[in-house]
Structure formats: structure tokens, C-alpha cells
């Protein structure tokens, strides 16, 4: 009787301890680096141009992860001191806001060994190193819509272009377009958006198409929505459309009017254990050769000015920064979104739920 | 030799038999308990503790208490009327300076922004400017830095924050908020979303339960009356989707229900409709996908109860003169009620917690409570709201189960 008690007790202790041990897997600095990007075709281009060449060159194992730009994940990691992402690709407003909140490591450019003046936008960010210049644009399928939209007002014109529209499920980017379509000049957009009546005006304009919108959250969705014919036109990140045209043979067309230019930056969450390796990787990824290489896979603009002469000539006309795309371009204001992003996000969620 | 009764009652070693019996019973119970202890610990650690912690998070919020200690102490003497005195402003200036150096100004601002829209940017800029203040008078200086500190509401908010517990999240989850002087008022209509969301969740769950019952009952009946070989084959067809991942089934529905998906293309080809119907990203898509996923949950308990009903009962009723429908309704159906109760309860409670399927195939007006809990956890990092919504959902579910129990009786539920 007593032996069976002992056996049962021992089994219980073993069971509980084994389940606890399984969770512990020691990982040391110097053997791997976890990099998180936006997934899809963009991450594929990073893999081919940065991760694989760097892994081969340095012997370091690169572990990839994906997310959709939610800065809250990075906050949660740093706040609970369980940082599993060593490097993250973020957009400019996340970089500014997370930096101000002390979530990111400040970049030591000397340690990086890069000339800050050679990197477009390098002087604007304390906690991040720019990686690419991307654009949010309106795209449509030429096969289904031979005469597509020409100006941003057409996105809101359901009489001329009936059918559903795809929009990014956030206030980010959509409020600016609403104001521009409502007649505001591009240089005045953020000034008007600072005021409450300006925000009301933007939401009122979005109300006019609200019932026709399909909201997407991940960069891979817009090309899929266009291919399925679920939407007549959609906002999208330009590189994803380029990839769908190049690699999937689709006949998508981009409307460059009111394109929203933004940076993507490499940032290092505070509290990670692989600072040295992260710096070495960023130095590699910002080198002219690697930057020019990435343009072979996706049409995002390199930030290293020394890389521009080496950019793949086939992709030059598709870059957001190509001269004929810059006529009516809007440069996203990261300070505005860092300040107001939280409030506007809450208002957007409430607006969406009504 | 004849032993006396007392002698028989004693065992050879002198211990009374009754005592020995008690000891053995006790040991048996202890052994049984030991076998259950691992499971008990597991349920305690993985179920009771996290849920308890979530309920605690719904009412516990010490952000302001820990990040603004001086102001909290100074506000103890404030009577709540007008504005506090110079000492409170001095304390506030001290706290803002520390917040700026510790980079916690945004956390304070975010908490205040929940109740006072616009407070986030005002608090962070005040903290930055206050770090340059070194001497009083603080009241005038702070009001000069930002008119926010002249508002009575922000001081009421801070006074409310001085206890570590708050009703704000629970109130907000039912569309109430604190107004001026900490009175509880209703949230303005354009921001009031949660009551509608809870009603929507209940409505969709009831609808899906009814749909699964209507679809599942005949199929369960068919499965019981067919010969074993055919019914086994049909059973595999019912259960096979059940074994496929929920995410894959939901994505498959996207392919079927799209504007140019299989269903629309077939209907257009058959000239039933001329324009593609809106089947997805709205309530239709949500209910269809959820019904498909929940069907086995309703069907299988009904089937297993039906299997225990002898076919001769209905035959007896018919032979006594009952019409076919009367026999079914008065004799067969009441016997299936325990299975129906089990299946419907299971489906209903599972539906209350759905969030992935409505997010993938529903529109913005079809999002259920689960979506908002996930949104507050993943996007806004507002643990208080997520916990409050979760606590209310849990309480509502338990209440509904209690009502169900009173009406139907849990002991009347059978799974076969």
C-alpha cells in the first residue's frame, strides 16, 4: 500500500517537472539571430538579398518571424522582459513612437560603421536604421477594369467605379487619402488632420464608401483580393503588386497619384541579448551591394545612396521614388502618427464597429 | 472455546475493529486523492489561476498609483471641488519630471487617454516641458505648459486612480463612463459599441444554434435509421470535416462564397441571379461558416441519444392509432430532448467565444465580443478592457447556463 503511494507521488512529481523542463531551451548569443518582418513577398526579397547571404557569410543562423506591423507585440515583449525578436522591421511612425517610449535601443552609428549622411532619412531616426522606401498606392486589375482610377478621388467615387474597395484596416494612410480626395492640398493634409474638425472631415469622407470596403490586415491580402475579383481596386504596398505582376503573371496596374511614401527601418528591441550580431547584420543589410540586390526581387527604393547606380534597371521605373511617380506624392509624417496614432486608432475602431 | 462478543470484536493485535476499518477507509481515500492530485493541480494552474487573474485584472489598475506616487499622496487631502492647491501641483511637477526621465510619461498619458481623449499627447509634452521646471509656483507654471491641468476632470481622474482598483473597465464594457465629479454617465452614442456587440454575440450564437439544430436533427435521424454500412459511411462524412482545422475550413468558405467564387459562378451560370450575390464579409458568410463548423457539435449528442431509443416505441404508438406526425411529436421527440439540450448548449457556449471565423468571413458589423477581446490584447495592449470584456462574457455565460439548468435541468442532459 505504501509503495503504491510512493509510486503515485513519484509519477506526479516527474510528470510536473518534465512538463516544466521541456519549455527551457538554452540559446546562446553568437549562434542565431531572430529577425521579424512583414512576411509575404517582401520578406522573401529580404531573405534572398539579406538573410541567406549574411548567414552564409557569417555562419550565423537567421531565424525568421512574421508580423503585421503591430507595435504592441514589441511593447509586450520589452515590457515583460521576454524579448525573443532581436531585429524587427518597422515603419517610421512605430520607430518614432517606440523610441520615445524607451522600447528600442538607440543606434550607435559609429559602432555600425555606416556614414549616416549616405542613408536617406538616417538623420531623422535615433532608434532605427532605414532599410527601404515603400509606398502605399491604389492598385487595380487591368483585366477587370481596363479604364482604371486616375486620381485618388476615384477611390471614393462609387458611381464611376462601382464595386468594392480594399483598404488597410487602420486609420493610418486612409485619413490622409480621405482629406486629399475631399479637396485638401497635399502640403496641408497633416496640418488639417491635427485639428478635430479635420479628423471629422476625414471620417465623414470615409463614411461615403464605408459599406463598400473590404478591410485587409496583411500585405499579402490585396493582391489576393484583386486576383479573386473580390474588389474593384485596393490600397496595397507597391512592392507586393510588383511581385504579383512579375511572379504570378497578373495584370495589375498601380495608380501612383497620392502615393504615400514611408520608410521601413531596422530596430532593436531593448533587452535583447544579441546586440552585437544585430549591429553586424544591419551593417551588412545597409551596404550598397545588398541594397541593390534587394531591388532584383521587389520594387522598394534603397536608402543607401551609393546603391542607386547599381539598382536593377528593369525595376527602376517601378520604384516609388521614380521621377514620374513623385508628382503628387505624400510623405507620411511619422511624428504626427506617433503623437496621434493611439487616439485616432481608438476612434477608428469605434467607427468601424458601428 | 466460546469467545464473548467483546472478545470477537477485538482483532488479534488488540486494536478495535472499528478503528481498523476507519484507517483502511482513510488510506483508500488518500490513495484515490493522490491519483487525482496531478489533474487537480493541472486544472488549478492552467484554468482556475489564469481566469482568476483575468477577473482580477478587470478591476485592478495601479498605473497612476505606481507612476505618480507624489500626486496620489497629495490628492488624499483634496475635497474634490474646484482645483487642488499648490502642493498638489508641486507633486504633479515632481511626478512629471520623474516620468520624463524614466520614459513612463507615455504610459501615464495612455491610461489618462482612455477617459480623456487627447490626454496622451498633452501629458507627454507636459512631461517634457516640466523637466525644465525647477522652482515654484508650480500651479501657474503647469497650467501655462498645458491647459489640461486646469481641467477639473483630469484631477478627478487622478483622484480615482489613487486606489488600486477601478470600475472604469467594467463600466466601459457596458457603455458607461465617469463624467465630471466622478459621476457615472452613459457613453455618447457614437462611441457606444459594446452593448450592441454583446447583443450581437448572443443573437448570432442563438441563430447558429437554431440553424445547426434544424440541419442536424434530420441527419442524426437518418444516421440512426439507415442500415449500419451506409450509416457508417455517412458518419465518416459528418465527422471528417470535424477533424480538419477550423482555419482551413473557414478559408475554404472564402473560396466558395467570394464574388467570383464557386457558388456565385454556379448561380450565375444557371441564370438564377445575374449579379454576384454578397455572400461574404457580411452576416450571411459568418452564420454559414459558423453553422458548418458547429454542426458536428450539435449533431453527435443528438445522434447518440437517438441511438438509445428503441424503434418499437414509435411502432407501438402507430399501432395504437397515432398518426405519423403525432407519433413522432408525442413519443419520439420528447425522448430526444436530452440530446438536443446537450448539443444546443455545447454549440451555444462555443459560439459565444468565436472570433477567428467572424474576422475572416464577416464584415466590420459582424464582429463578436471575442474580436474585441483579441483587439484589446493584441493591438491596443489594454489588458484592463480585454479582462473586463472577458469577465463579463464569462459571467453572462455562467448566468445563461444557470438559467438553462433551472429550465431544463443539467441532470436531464444525456450524451448517449
Describe the structure.
The complex is a heterodimer of chains A (354) and B (416). Chain A has 354 residues and is α/β, with parallel strands linked by helices. Chain A has 13 helices and 10 strands. In chain A, strands 1, 2, 3, 4, 5, 6, 7, 8, 9 and 10 form a 10-stranded mixed sheet that branches. In chain A, strand 1, helix 2 and strand 2 form a beta-alpha-beta unit. In chain A, helix 2 (40-58) packs antiparallel against helix 12 (288-294) and helix 4 packs across helix 13 (334-353). Chain A is globular and about 85 Å long. The model of chain A has no long low-confidence stretch (mean pLDDT 91). With 416 residues, chain B is mainly alpha-helical. Chain B is 70% helix and 1% strand. Chain B is built from 20 helices and 2 strands. Chain B has helices at 5-9, 17-59, 63-67, 69-74, 86-102, 105-115, 119-130, 138-145, 152-160, 168-173, 194-225, 228-242, 246-257, 262-269, 283-306, 311-319, 324-352, 356-361, 369-378, 383-407, and strands at 176-178, 184-186. Chain B has a two-stranded antiparallel sheet with strand order 1-2. In chain B, strand 1 (176-178) and strand 2 form a beta hairpin. In chain B, helix 5 crosses helix 7, helix 11 runs antiparallel to helix 12 and helix 15 packs across helix 17 (324-352). The radius of gyration of chain B is 32 Å and the shape is extended. The mean pLDDT of chain B is 90. The chains are: A alpha/beta (354), B mainly alpha (416). Chains A and B meet through helix 1, helix 3 and helix 13 of A and helix 2, helix 6, helix 7 and helix 19 of B.
Amino acid at each position: 500500500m505504501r509503495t503504491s503511494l510512493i509510486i503515485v507521488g513519484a509519477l506526479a512529481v516527474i510528470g510536473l517537472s518534465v512538463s516544466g523542463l521541456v519549455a527551457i531551451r538554452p540559446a546562446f548569443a553568437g549562434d542565431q539571430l531572430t529577425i521579424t518582418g512583414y512576411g509575404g513577398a517582401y520578406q522573401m526579397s529580404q531573405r534572398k538579398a539579406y538573410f541567406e547571404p549574411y548567414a552564409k557569410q557569417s555562419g550565423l543562423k537567421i531565424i525568421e518571424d512574421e508580423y503585421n506591423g503591430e507595435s504592441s507585440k514589441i511593447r509586450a515583449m520589452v515590457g515583460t522582459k521576454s524579448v525573443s525578436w532581436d531585429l524587427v522591421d518597422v515603419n517610421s511612425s512605430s520607430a518614432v513612437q517606440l523610441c520615445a517610449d524607451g522600447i528600442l535601443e538607440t543606434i550607435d552609428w559609429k559602432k555600425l560603421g555606416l556614414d549616416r549622411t549616405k542613408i536617406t532619412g538616417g538623420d531623422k531616426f535615433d532608434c532605427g536604421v532605414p532599410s527601404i522606401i515603400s509606398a502605399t498606392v491604389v492598385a487595380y486589375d487591368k483585366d477587370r477594369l481596363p479604364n482604371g482610377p486616375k486620381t485618388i478621388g476615384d477611390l471614393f467615387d462609387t458611381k464611376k467605379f462601382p464595386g468594392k474597395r480594399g483598404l488597410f484596416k487602420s486609420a493610418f494612410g486612409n485619413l490622409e487619402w480621405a482629406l486629399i480626395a475631399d479637396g485638401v492640398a497635399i502640403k496641408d493634409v497633416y496640418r488639417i488632420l491635427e485639428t478635430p474638425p479635420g479628423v471629422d472631415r476625414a471620417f465623414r469622407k470615409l463614411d461615403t464608401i464605408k459599406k463598400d470596403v473590404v478591410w485587409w490586415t496583411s500585405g499579402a491580402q490585396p493582391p489576393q483580393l484583386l486576383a479573386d475579383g473580390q474588389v474593384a481596386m485596393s490600397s496595397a504596398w507597391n512592392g507586393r503588386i510588383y511581385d504579383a505582376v512579375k511572379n504570378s503573371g497578373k495584370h495589375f496596374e498601380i495608380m501612383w497619384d497620392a502615393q504615400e511614401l514611408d520608410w521601413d527601418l531596422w530596430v532593436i528591441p531593448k533587452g535583447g541579448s544579441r546586440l552585437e550580431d544585430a549591429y553586424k547584420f544591419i551593417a551588412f543589410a545597409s551596404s550598397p551591394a545588398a541594397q541593390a540586390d534587394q531591388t532584383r526581387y521587389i520594387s522598394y527604393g534603397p536608402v543607401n545612396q551609393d546603391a542607386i547606380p547599381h539598382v536593377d534597371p528593369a525595376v527602376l521605373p517601378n520604384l516609388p521614388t521614380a521621377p514620374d511617380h513623385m508628382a503628387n506624392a505624400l510623405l507620411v509624417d511619422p511624428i504626427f502618427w506617433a503623437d496621434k496614432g493611439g487616439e485616432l486608432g481608438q476612434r477608428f475602431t469605434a467607427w468601424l464597429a458601428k | 472455546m466460546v469467545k464473548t462478543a467483546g472478545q470477537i470484536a477485538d482483532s488479534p493485535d488488540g486494536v478495535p475493529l472499528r478503528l481498523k476499518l476507519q484507517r483502511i477507509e482513510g488510506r483508500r481515500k488518500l490513495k484515490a486523492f493522490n491519483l487525482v492530485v496531478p489533474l487537480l493541480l493541472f486544472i488549478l494552474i492552467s484554468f482556475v489561476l489564469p481566469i482568476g487573474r483575468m477577473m482580477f485584472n478587470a478591476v485592478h489598475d495601479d498605473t497612476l498609483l505606481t507612476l505618480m506616487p507624489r500626486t496620489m499622496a497629495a490628492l488624499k487631502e483634496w475635497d474634490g471641488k474646484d482645483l487642488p492647491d499648490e502642493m498638489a501641483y508641486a507633486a504633479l511637477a515632481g511626478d512629471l519630471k520623474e516620468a520624463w526621465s524614466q520614459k513612463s510619461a507615455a504610459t501615464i498619458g495612455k491610461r489618462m487617454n482612455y477617459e480623456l481623449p487627447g490626454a496622451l499627447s498633452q501629458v507627454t509634452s507636459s512631461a517634457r516641458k516640466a523637466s525644465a521646471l525647477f522652482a515654484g509656483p508650480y500651479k501657474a507654471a503647469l497650467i501655462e505648459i498645458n491647459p489640461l491641468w486646469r481641467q477639473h476632470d483630469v484631477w478627478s481622474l487622478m483622484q480615482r486612480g489613487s486606489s488600486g482598483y477601478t470600475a472604469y473597465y467594467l463600466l466601459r464594457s457596458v457603455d458607461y463612463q465617469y463624467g465630471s465629479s466622478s459621476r457615472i454617465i452613459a457613453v455618447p452614442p457614437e462611441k457606444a459599441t459594446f452593448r450592441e456587440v454583446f447583443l450581437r454575440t448572443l443573437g448570432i450564437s442563438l441563430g447558429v444554434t437554431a440553424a445547426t439544430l434544424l440541419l442536424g436533427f434530420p441527419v442524426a435521424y437518418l444516421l440512426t435509421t439507415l442500415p449500419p454500412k451506409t450509416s457508417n459511411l455517412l458518419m465518416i462524412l459528418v465527422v471528417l470535416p470535424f477533424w480538419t482545422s477550423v482555419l482551413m475550413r473557414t478559408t475554404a468558405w472564402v473560396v466558395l462564397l467570394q464574388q467570383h467564387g464557386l457558388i456565385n459562378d454556379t448561380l450565375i451560370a444557371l441564370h438564377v441571379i445575374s449579379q454576384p450575390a454578397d455572400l461574404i464579409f457580411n452576416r450571411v458568410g459568418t452564420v454559414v461558416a459558423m453553422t458548418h463548423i458547429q454542426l458536428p457539435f450539435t449533431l453527435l449528442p443528438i445522434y447518440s441519444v437517438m441511438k438509445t431509443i428503441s424503434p418499437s416505441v414509435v411502432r407501438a404508438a402507430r399501432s395504437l392509432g397515432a398518426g405519423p406526425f403525432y407519433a413522432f411529436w408525442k413519443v419520439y421527440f420528447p425522448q430526444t430532448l436530452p440530446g438536443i439540450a446537450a448539443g444546443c448548449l455545447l454549440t451555444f457556449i462555443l459560439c459565444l467565444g468565436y472570433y477567428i471565423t467572424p474576422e475572416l468571413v464577416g464584415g466590420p458589423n459582424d464582429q463578436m465580443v471575442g474580436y474585441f477581446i483579441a483587439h484589446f490584447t493584441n493591438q491596443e495592449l489594454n489588458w484592463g478592457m480585454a479582462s473586463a470584456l472577458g469577465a463579463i462574457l464569462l459571467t453572462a455565460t455562467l448566468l445563461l447556463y444557470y438559467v438553462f439548468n433551472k429550465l431544463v435541468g443539467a441532470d436531464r442532459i444525456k450524451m448517449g
